[in-house]
Amino acid sequence: MWSYVLRRLGQALLVLLVAFTATFFLLHYLPGDAVIARYGSPQLGLSSAEVAEIRASMGADQPVWTQFWLALTGFLTGNLGYSAQTGASVSSMLTTALPETAALTLTSFLLAVVLAFTIAFTSTFGRFAWLRRVMRALPPLFISIPVFWLAIVLIQIFSFQLGLVPVIGASDLQALVLPSLAISVPIAAPLAQILVSSIDEVRSQPFVSVVRAKGASTNWLLWRNVLGNALLPALTIAGLLFGELIAGAVVTETIFGRSGIGRMTEQAVANRDMPVLQAIVVLSAATFVLINLIVDLLYPVLDPRLRKKVRV
Amino acid sequence: MNRTETLHSAPQSTTTADRLDSSAHRSALLAVEDLSVAYTSRGVQRPAVDQVSFTLDRGETLAVVGESGSGKSTIAQSLIGLLPAGGNVTSGTAHLGDRSADLDLLRLSDQSMRPIRGRRIGLIPQDPSNSLNPVRTVGWSVAEAMRIHRRGDKRTRQRRTLELLERVGIDDPERRARQYPHELSGGQRQRVLIAAAIALEPELIIADEPTSALDVTVQRVILDLIDELRTELNASVLFVTHDLAVAAERADSLLVLHQGTVKERGPARTILTSPQDDYTKRLLSNAPSLLSPPDRRPVPQTDPRFVAVDGLTHRYKTGKSSFAAVKDVSFTIARGSTHALVGESGSGKTTLGRAIAGFHAPSTGSVTVGGVDVASARKRPEFRKQVQLVYQNPYGSLDPRQSVGEIVAEPLRNFGVKDRGERRRRALLELERVALPPEIADRLPRELSGGQRQRVAIARALVLRPDLLVLDEAVSALDVTIQAQILSLLEKLQQELELTYVFISHDLAVVRQIADTVSVLAAGEQVESGPTEAVFNSPEHEYTRALLSAIPRPRITPTVP
């Protein structure tokens, strides 16, 4: 068990290193850099000699491998560098932005799970056939809704038309409602689809009739027998959907003007702010790897067949 | 082993005949009248059970016997209110318990059926491999009915669970109760399912093909257990089976079902000794019998060592350890004869069959077919012309997207018969040989019955004119009447084409009918080998004797006019 966890952690470190290297070189060979983006504008009236000097002061004139080595050793020692745009330390930028985004992604995810389970249960165990059919049609619809569009529509309806959520001066909780909703809908859809199909699959297994022959009610069947068996595929998808969550955060934070990692990403891309982008990619990769590690460790908890044989 | 004891304590078996006809008898537990069930799919109603009536007395076992599609399971499912989607009871009544209580199972809503399920009616399902919740412990599943019906507190339930597991013969119940279904063997799982079904001591036990997925020795033990529990609980058993021999051995009375209608019903003894209905007679004569060995023509002696297996051992490697599935097996097969490989699941018979057919090279030892070493010849295409394999599952071994004609002709294409017309002509010839009409060539496998599919699989194997056919449980999935037809087809083909068969089967009755010589395998070892009659009449090894004695035998010799 522990050797498995250690091996997986080792693999995770390797993944992080690859992600770091790939981002570094991709960003490096993209046309333009942070110095041009910030100081290249003719309005600033800097001569090309002066721009070269700024570049030298930031170490941007060094050979690529030296830069790579400096960045890598910096990361390993906890020094994430400084934003080329603002000069602020990247780690302090992250610490202020992270809680915002963590709150957003967490509520979105919980909302998505609740939404997905509601759809899945009513479309399989729902009392009325018409309701089951309507619920089954929801996920394909949800999947085709773009986040940015949904976000704008939500603001239009709930803030401007109904005035339920203030646009300016909202409390922390109020500010979370609409963006979370916008992100959760497209995430709930694939989750619900997987749940529906695995519940259907489990329900067709012979053991379900055996449980019913013991006198079980529908609720008993669903909660104590079907659900435990249907969770596994949904768990896999949930781990993979984390990527969607980050993508959703970039769009919604920009639209709702929240100062989180998503917003930071958007600005860093616009400004070619390499150190910031580098840090964000590594952070996202680390979270992604961690979440999927947790998912893998949860499998044997949910399904005893996946447990390594302990007894002979 | 408790057979005689059970019989004595259940004296009604002699007088069931009189009582079957007086449906208002006091001790009747279940009275079914005019039960009709239909399945509706895409707006079309198809009757599955038509006006079936029977009574089941307390403490009695009634066997509902029929082939697949006869409606036997549908009857069981409608009694417990668990018909699959599309199934509807269209008429009839089913009174449980005293007539005065007026409890009609067929008219109860799902809600009012719940207190009866598990408490008054227990279900022992067909396939133990997937009838237990895989993510719950065995103990949890046994205790489930008690929890649903709120019987006792946690501690008494726990104690009762262990008692039940012990009663059904699970070793070390405390440890087993904490294990999961996948850690148990098929027989143990079926014991657990029985324990779960009788947890609340139901009056009626519905056993829906409870042993058809089990090995013959396990089958016997499970059937004994159900018999014992029936006596202990004074319960009645509604026993659904396709196996006439099992029914005849275990039931007091029989209900013979064909295409949803009752062909015959009455005491088992009467039906076996003097069947009235033509269908029952056919069923009896088709059932492979151990009591009257068929007359077989003498084994041709042109080439007594056509197939020679010499000291064959096959190991499977799993990681660092290896497991010998077949250990040092030797025998020879004469050209034009049938050699059976007999054993229970896990005995290595399929591994051995695949080694003979050249699908894997043996770890040590050798196989020769017609004097050619299989291990060195098996990669050469010509070898496939000589040896072909026919699988158990005719559903899985045919490409669902190809027409029957294409399926049969495919080997010809692989062996360079370029002309389409020529391939088609030869495929049709082969279909005719297995007694299939030519129009079947344009159909897809799913449009055929199980028997027809197996004929197609045989035709495909024959199209290259092989000398040796390895038949791996080739008739095991078929109903008895179909099975009998395929077996006689195989015999006819053997004489026409001078074929040699390696016939792999767990069914000793079938083996006795078709095989000239036999090897009995147990846990990879060959415990006995020789002419079929010699092995069957005077088995030398204890395992062979156990296998033979485990075969269901009617208490009365059936007589087929």
Report on the architecture of this protein.
The complex is a heterodimer of chains A (312) and B (561). Chain A has 13 helices and no strands. By secondary structure, chain A is an all-alpha fold. Chain A folds into two domains: 2-76, no CATH class; 90-306, Orthogonal Bundle (MetI-like fold), CATH 1.10.3720. Chain B starts with a helix and ends in a 12-residue tail after the last helix. In chain B, the strands form four sheets. Chain B has a six-stranded mixed sheet, with helices on both faces. Chain B is globular and about 75 Å long. Among the domains of chain B are: 3-59 and 67-120 and 238-284, P-loop containing nucleotide triphosphate hydrolases (Rossmann fold, 3-Layer(aba) Sandwich); 307-402 and 462-549, 3-Layer(aba) Sandwich (Rossmann fold). Chain B contains 22 helices and 19 strands. Chain B has 561 residues and is of the alpha/beta class. The A-B interface holds A 205-207, 209-217, 220, 225, 228-229, 302-305 and B 80, 82, 114-119, 121-123, 125-127, 130-137, 144-145, 148-149, 180, 182, 193, 196-197.
List keywords for this structure.
A: mainly alpha, 2 domains, 13 helices, 77% helix, B: 561 residues, Rossmann fold, 6-stranded mixed β-sheet, 36% helix, globular, disordered N terminus, transport (chain B), nucleotide-binding (chain B), ATP hydrolysis activity (chain B), ABC transporter ATP-binding protein (chain B)
Strands of chain A, total number: 0
User: Per CATH, which architecture of the largest domain in chain A?
Assistant: Orthogonal Bundle
Query: Pairing-aware structural class of the strands and helices of chain A?
Result: mainly alpha
CATH class of the domain at 307-402 and 462-549 in chain B: Alpha Beta
CATH classification class of the largest domain in chain A? Mainly Alpha
CATH architecture assignment of the domain at 307-402 and 462-549 in chain B:
3-Layer(aba) Sandwich
The rounded distance between the terminal residues' Cα atoms of chain A is: 16 Å
Q: Structural class of the helices, strands and pairings of chain B?
A: alpha/beta
Distance between the termini of chain B: 32 Å
GO biological process, one term (chain B): peptide transport
Pfam families (chain B): ABC_tran (PF00005), oligo_HPY (PF08352)
InterPro entries (chain B): AAA+_ATPase, ABC_transp_ATP-bind, ABC_transporter-like_ATP-bd, ABC_transporter-like_CS, Oligopep_ABC_C, P-loop_NTPase
Biased composition (Polar residues) (chain B): 1-17
